[in-house]
UniProtKB/TrEMBL annotation:
Name by which UniProt lists this protein: Diguanylate cyclase (GGDEF)-like protein
Residues of the full protein shown: 619 to 868 of 882
Span of domain EAL: 1-250
Lineage, opening ranks: Bacteria, Pseudomonadati, Pseudomonadota, Alphaproteobacteria, Hyphomicrobiales
Amino acid sequence: HELATELKRAVAERAFQLHFQPLVDLNSGAVAGCEALLRWPHPVRGFVSPAEFIPLAEDIGLIEELGEWVLEQACGVAVGWPAAMTVAVNVSPIQFRRATFPLKVAAALARSGLAAHRLELEITEALLLQDTESTLTILNQLRALGVKIALDDFGTGYSSLSYLHRFPIDKIKIDKSFVDTLTDQAGSAPIVRAIVQIAAAGNKTTLAEGVETAAQRDLLRQLGCQQMQGYLFSPALPAEALARLIAGGD
Ligand code: G
Ligand code: G
Ligand code: MN
Ligand code: NA
């Protein structure tokens, strides 16, 4: 597999970039943090999507090394942001289940000097359904370090809402598919309202993903959702462009 060979080389050479997409507080409009999104600038293929190369990295045993690089980079960049800003890092289930993962997280924090509460790890619902006991153990280890846990793409998996309270989760990221139909007649607004209420009852923050219109933003605010992320505010940006954005320049 040609792409696999190239990916192997790219990981060895750290030939990736991290971009950062702002997470915006719906009430104040302030940038509360950013999600780190991996980019692979391929000399011939252009930017290869992580949706394509992350599963490949998982298949060929490269995800730990790649994930560790992402973690180190993300913490290293975020330490230069205002102290109120967090950084969110996507964690592959394979990476998450390695016994050394909490140690890797602790090492990235120590090396960068980033306060643990400013790091948010994004996991997916599927993790909660498999090996529930071990998942709980790992989540508790991570929580003991002081990092935050966010549940990514919420609503696309098969976990029930009742599952939420069994796990130490700080934030729920409502999947873009709910945001897409939010302002439609008979759309997803009642579902989003229910998710926000259940999250609030468990002291969890809610964020809506893929917000593209002002109407979606306004309704989300009205429904009590706390944060949003999406092209309405900004796509993922290189670190320098993000720094200019938060400094208020352009
Ligand atoms: O940014 P974009 O829409 O291209 O991302 C596509 C997918 O790749 C998303 O599901 C996103 O969560 C995932 N992804 C992006 N960066 C990372 C990363 O650093 N690690 C992992 N495991 N997944 C990532
Ligand atoms: O799976 P995850 O939620 O981590 O993936 C986030 C993906 O969504 C990234 O690839 C990011 O580039 C993309 N994204 C972020 N905001 C928007 C948006 O407003 N619209 C669309 N279509 N995609 C978005
Ligand atoms: Mn994510
Ligand atoms: Na997401």
